[in-house]
Design brief:
Shape: globular
Number of strands: 5
Largest sheet: 5 strands, parallel
Distance between the termini: 17 Å
Number of helices: 9
Structural class: alpha/beta
Radius of gyration: 16 Å
Strand order of the largest sheet: 2-3-1-4-5
Helix content: 40-55%
Order of helices and strands: EHEHHHEHEHHHEH
Length: 179
């Protein structure tokens, strides 16, 4: 019988929703190791994602992203933050849903717009896009993020509140995780 207590917890959501910040808090609260896929790839290539996209290409980045996620989902007891675009790949989506507890951090477009200035420089997918194009991208990705085990609304909440809510829901819903 599968032991859900040891499953990885994987955070998904649009870029800038707070996956890394919330993931680090969640890892502390659940005494697990936190891994941010983008940060791991940046370390390997010794450059930020925006430079990887520019110098090596998005395709190379996506291939490494898929390899890393596949490797990490074979392990246990991790909190993993995947980049906003990783879940677009069907193979990654299926692998994550089968092997991990996938939590969708949901933020409204209005809430997300308030964060644009904080994230635009580090998100190459947004470079050169109008607000209308960003909105279209945001809503297109919502359909992909609909594939999850648990959805957490994050509007008007700080990272600590969101992490606490996740822990509460994981503990209460023994079908998701046991403690």
């Amino acid at each position: 019988m599968e032991n859900k207590c040891k499953k990885n917890i994987l955070l998904i959501g649009f870029m800038g929703v707070g996956k890394t910040t919330i993931g680090k808090l969640l890892a502390q609260k659940l005494n697990r190791k936190f891994i941010d896929i983008d940060e791991e790839i940046e370390r390997e290539f010794d450059m930020p994602v925006s430079q990887i996209f520019k110098n090596i290409g998005e395709k190379a980045f996506r291939e490494r992203e898929k390899e890393l996620i596949a490797s990490l989902t074979e392990k246990q007891l991790k909190i993993i933050s995947v980049g906003g675009g990783a879940f677009l790949q069907q193979e990654i989506r299926q692998l994550c849903l089968a092997s991990s507890i996938v939590i969708f951090l949901d933020l409204s477009f209005e809430g997300w717009k308030d964060r644009i200035d904080l994230i635009i420089v580090s998100r190459p997918v947004l470079h050169g896009k109008s607000i209308e194009e960003m909105e279209k991208l945001f809503y297109n990705r919502q359909e992909i993020y609909a594939n999850h085990h648990l959805k957490i609304a994050s509007d008007n909440k700080d990272a600590e509140e969101i992490a606490d809510e996740i822990v509460r829901k994981l503990i209460v819903d023994v079908d998701i995780l046991c403690y």
